[in-house]
Write the structure tokens for this entry.
Amino acid sequence: MELGLIGLGRMGANMAIRLLQDGHRVIVYNRTAEKAQALAQEHHAIAAQTVSELVEKLASPRIIWLMLPAGAATAQQIETLLPLLQKGDILINGANANYKESLAYGESLTSQGFHFLDVGVSGGIWGLKNGYCLMIGGEQEIFKLLEPIFQTLAPPNGYKLCGPHGAGHFVKMIHNGIEYGMMQAYAEGLEIMAQSRYDLDLQAIAELWNQGSVVRSWLLELAAAALAKDPQLASIKGYVADSGEGRWTIQEAIDLDVPAPVITLALQMRLRSRQEESFGAKVLAALRNEFGGHAVKAAKD
């Protein structure tokens, strides 16, 4: 099939390569033109210098897949695209967008005669080799039309139309919320072992657990790989960012009156990791000293 791909970051560029390797015709555009040119030179993509040029190079109905940061960047790109498109053209948002925004886009674009799919993409930098899990929301007819693209990008049984507009990004949001909790549990367990009386080989234990245990997973494989490179993780600062999906998951849980303590605390731990020194922890230490005379450590120590 033929499609345009806008946004050639770590995920977008690898998705383009995987599509090209399977014989699809891919026109690529990136704000940094060198990335598009590199894909053209190394993988035979067709590089567009502008969004307008990308649209012109596509036959109708045009298929344009966006892999941009959620929020303003995606909104601005859609605003730029719409005057260039014709009725019947298809927009796909594969970024980690809030499902409510995707639901609104689906309703708005459909009312204007366009088609829209929201696609939650999981697989990270390993997706080029292993394929991407695709969680899709939108119209059944458009899903079926684009199925050859999904079959190329995903591993066997790795894509699904989850429901109407917004459903793909909703499922991806919950997926990432669960991921927060799983990662936090692994982190806590490995830290307990690191602080124990035993001189444990944490990489070997992570690999051991992946051999038939009930906690085996790809995340555990990645933990073992990270520990193999740096057993003490001495080269890494313990600063953990979040891209929004955990927050959205927790807010959805609140709105639905669903208790989600594990995901909530996992997000809170990410926030804590960003503080060089917690003022709240200082308050706790001061209070223990005030009411019980418990020792405190001087700041210089």
About this structure: Residues 167-194 form the longest helix (28 residues).
